Amino acid sequence: MEAIEKFLFHCEFEKRLSSKTLKAYSIDLAQFKSHMLTQYGLTDVSQIGKEELKHYVQFLSRFKPKTIKRKLAATKAMFNFLEFEEFIETNPFRKVRIRIKEPKVLPRVMNIEEITQLFQAAYRELRDMEGKPDSYAYMEKVRDVAVFELLFGTGVRVSELCSLKYADIGIDFSSVRVNGKGSKERNIQIINADIKRALRNYYRLFSAVIGTQEYFFINRFGNRLSEQSVRLMIRKYRKKCNITKNVTPHVFRHTFATLLLEQDVDIKYIQNILGHSSILTTQIYTHVSTEKQTEILEKKHPRNDLVVVR
């Protein structure tokens, strides 16, 4: 369908969407195109109406609600564009009511003991390699510590961490400029001395290679550190610590946000640090910490102050 190409061109060169979003749009719209062709023999979007869209929604029901929402959002955005540019007379989505109920899944978090275990394991391995400061194994441990410190210290997404460039790091490692979802930029201050030290030590070892390419975190080949490498690194330390729960980079982010909330940090500040466009996304953390809730109710419940003679 020529309409898909026009829409993707608009997204890339006019809206300047990220390559990740463009790839998702391209995959989802290719599936939409294939479905319309195989099921109805349609190759022209102007021929697609309410009934075809309803059947497409039914076809998508095999996927998870979050995936269905994403695929329909891509298709709806394309039809909105086509109507606005007058490639079609009427957007068929106007005649279709779609309600996808997504189950509320609370984010997985680590407790303070588990996050401490992971950090201790990373620093212990670094100490064990200090006798070989010229080896790549030592450099790798320094990088592991820097990645841990930045993930937990800022709550950045793994994609944001791996996309950081040296130019995004503030003077004396006092802040990071993060390019988040939807190409939204935010600055996160780094106050903790341990985080700064970890980043400084990493840069001291890798600066020569960082200077030849654009990314801050790099692998042994001098290329951008991949998101999968970070996941595997965390898995390695999790197993060393005998932590049974599945710990991912995003669990670091969830834990960071939850612990800030438990320290009575205003949720609006947490929203800003995490780069959430809507506070509704951040509010999910208010439902997470049952342990903290129990502690508060045990110590501060007003019933404790009542003296009743029975």
UniProtKB/TrEMBL annotation:
Residues 105-298 form the Tyr recombinase domain. It comes from the Bacteria. One of its GO terms (molecular function) is DNA binding. The keyword Metal-binding does not apply. InterPro entries: CB, DNA_brk_join_enz, Integrase-like_cat_sf, Integrase_catalytic, Integrase_recombinase_N, Integrase_SAM-like_N, Tyrosine_recombinase_XerCD. SUPFAM superfamilies: DNA breaking-rejoining enzymes (SSF56349). The keyword 4Fe-4S does not apply. Keywords: DNA integration, DNA recombination, DNA-binding. One of its GO terms (biological process) is DNA recombination. Pfam families: Phage_int_SAM_1, Phage_integrase. Residues 1-83 form the Core-binding (CB) domain. Belongs to the 'phage' integrase family. This is Integrase. It comes from Prolixibacter bellariivorans.
